[in-house]
């Protein structure tokens, strides 16, 4: 790969990763603010509402936003606007279907939440129609970020994602912080969805050049044929994300659901990195595979994993080490304890240690979309089979453990599938020697810090414990990593370029 191409790839990756991390931070702040402002019962209610909304949204989009990347490269500039608005129109129709599905689902809520207090169930039923309206207006705007990226407007896409995330935060949190009711805040969220829809239409209209006609050169059948298989895989993936929470909501009480909602989160700032990097590298994987350059493909695959591992693995171990202080400091309020969420949170985040790459990107490069769907279904089945008995006998700790076991099992068979495509044994699919060096260094840095924290700092002083844990871990990991040449001078240079945000003003 030429230096020019590598630089361009690095810049695009930097923009995408920056935007995804910042929007993830906003989403995380939203979750934290909701926990701290609301009672545990109200938090369970809004958490359930947002879960249903997200499932419905992912059901509606069905891979159509991803089709933008595929077809924009095959269309001239004067045909892109028509295709973009065809995509938005399709999602307006599916948005109506999703909103209707939420309304229908509302009738089944009492039968599903049998362990919840009657007042909580009635509140969910009262507010679900508002989430249906949000879905109706939000879903058609979902492809806009991809449209901007596909049109080579990376910075516009970054600001669009940051702006919409910020607007949703303001719409929901500010009314709650000012003391307004949950119902009023959800009406403000409806206002956000309407404003997002209008602004998105205007933005796309002015960014894309006028075409020969308003229509699209790509038929609905063509677009649907490409999009729906991807959508099914993504949909199953989203069900995987929530199936354990559904199990907890059915088998356990509402307060346990609130605790598990806090615990069952892979730290989003960390997990977004491999997916953002994979979305940039996938086109290069496809190109190298088509050219039968297997050695170059493997080298790029390894390089991406090694660089992501340097961020994901130590940050994951750090989060596990500081979990007690993090959970208690962020989520605890007077009279409301989330101490029970600490252990399941630590178990759940062990999953992140295997998220050192976007495995679906390499499978797509080999045209193995059926494999992607198969592994999503396989993980869903494993989650259901394991989570029910584990939750029944061990509570939310068992739920987290069952989810970890299911993910490790699915990870192994994914590596076997990738190995067949690359003609490699499982042991060679990932750069395991480098990965275990990083993992070992992370554990060595983390264990003494965890011990020292409780020896010299009071268990109740969570802020001091958090500051101590973060600073000492990072200093130890970075110093040892540099000394052992696991972190190279080139790694330091690229990292410093990235945190200086040079890619935003080049």
Explain the overall architecture.
The longest helix has 54 residues, at 369-422. The radius of gyration is 23 Å and the shape is globular. By secondary structure, it is mainly α. The chain has a domain at 1-218. It is built from 22 helices and no strands. Helix 3 (64-72) runs antiparallel to helix 10, helix 7 runs antiparallel to helix 8 and helix 13 (294-321) packs antiparallel against helix 15. The two termini are 21 Å apart. It is a multi-pass membrane protein. This is Oligosaccharide flippase family protein. The chain crosses the membrane at residues 21-39, 45-71, 83-108, 128-151, 158-178, 184-208, 308-331, 337-357, 369-386, 392-413, 434-457, 463-487. InterPro entries: Poly_Biosynth_Transport.
- Annotation, overall tally of beta strands: 0
Q: Could you list the spans in which at least 5 consecutive residues all have pLDDT below 50?
A: none
Largest sheet features: none
Which structural class do the helices and strands define?
mainly alpha
Level of helix content? over 70%
Q: Tell me, rounded to a whole number, the average pLDDT.
A: 84
Write the layout of secondary structure elements.
Elements: H1 3-37, H2 40-61, H3 64-72, H4 77-106, H5 109-112, H6 118-138, H7 144-150, H8 154-177, H9 182-207, H10 220-251, H11 254-263, H12 268-290, H13 294-321, H14 323-331, H15 342-349, H16 359-365, H17 369-422, H18 426-429, H19 432-456, H20 462-483, H21 489-499, H22 502-505
Subcellular location: Cell membrane
Membrane topology: Multi-pass membrane protein
InterPro entries: Poly_Biosynth_Transport
């Amino acid at each position: 790969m030429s230096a020019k191409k590598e630089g361009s790839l690095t810049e695009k990756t930097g923009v995408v990763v920056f935007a995804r991390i910042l929007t993830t931070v906003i989403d995380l702040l939203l979750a934290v603010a909701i926990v701290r402002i609301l009672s545990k019962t109200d938090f369970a209610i809004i958490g359930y509402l947002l879960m249903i909304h997200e499932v419905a949204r992912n059901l509606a989009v069905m891979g159509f936003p991803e089709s933008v990347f595929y077809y924009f490269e095959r269309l001239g500039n004067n045909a892109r606007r028509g295709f973009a608005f065809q995509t938005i129109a399709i999602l307006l129709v599916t948005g109506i279907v999703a909103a209707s599905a939420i309304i229908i689902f509302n009738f089944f809520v009492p039968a599903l939440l049998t362990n919840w207090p009657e007042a909580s169930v009635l509140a969910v039923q009262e507010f679900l129609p508002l989430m249906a309206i949000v879905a109706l207006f939000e879903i058609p705007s979902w492809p806009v970020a991809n449209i901007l990226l596909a049109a080579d407007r990376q910075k516009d896409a970054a600001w669009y994602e940051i702006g919409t995330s910020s607007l949703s935060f303001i719409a929901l949190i500010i009314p709650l912080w000012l003391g307004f009711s949950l119902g009023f805040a959800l009406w403000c969220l409806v206002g956000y969805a309407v404003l997002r829809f209008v602004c998105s239409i205007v933005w796309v209209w002015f960014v894309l050049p006028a075409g020969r006609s308003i229509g699209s050169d790509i038929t609905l059948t063509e677009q649907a044929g490409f999009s729906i298989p991807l959508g099914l895989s993504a949909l199953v993936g989203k069900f995987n994300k929530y199936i354990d929470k559904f199990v907890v909501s059915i088998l356990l009480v509402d307060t346990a659901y609130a605790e598990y909602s806090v615990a069952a989160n892979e730290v989003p700032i960390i997990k977004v990195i491999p997916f953002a990097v994979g979305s940039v590298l996938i086109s290069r994987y496809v190109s190298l595979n088509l050219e039968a350059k297997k050695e170059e493909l493997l080298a790029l695959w390894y390089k991406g994993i090694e660089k992501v591992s340097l961020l994901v693995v130590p940050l994951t171990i750090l989060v596990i080490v500081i979990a007690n202080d993090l959970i208690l400091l962020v989520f605890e309020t007077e009279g409301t304890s989330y101490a029970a969420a600490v252990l399941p949170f630590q178990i759940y985040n062990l999953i992140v240690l295997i998220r050192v790459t976007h495995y679906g990107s390499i499978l797509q490069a080999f045209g193995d979309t059926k494999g992607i769907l198969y592994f999503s279904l396989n993980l869903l089945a494993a989650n259901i089979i394991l989570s029910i008995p584990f939750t029944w006998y061990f509570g939310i700790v068992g739920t987290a453990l069952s989810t970890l076991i299911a993910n490790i099992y699915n990870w192994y068979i994914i590596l076997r599938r990738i190995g067949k495509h690359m003609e490699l044994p499982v042991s060679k699919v990932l750069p395991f020697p480098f990965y275990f060096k990083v993992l070992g260094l992370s554990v060595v840095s983390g264990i003494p810090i965890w011990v020292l924290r409780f020896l010299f700092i009071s268990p109740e002083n969570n802020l001091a414990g958090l500051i101590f844990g973060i600073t000492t871990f990072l200093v130890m990991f970075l110093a040892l990593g540099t000394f052992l040449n696991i972190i190279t001078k080139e790694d330091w240079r690229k990292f410093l370029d990235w945190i200086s945000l040079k890619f935003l003003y080049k």
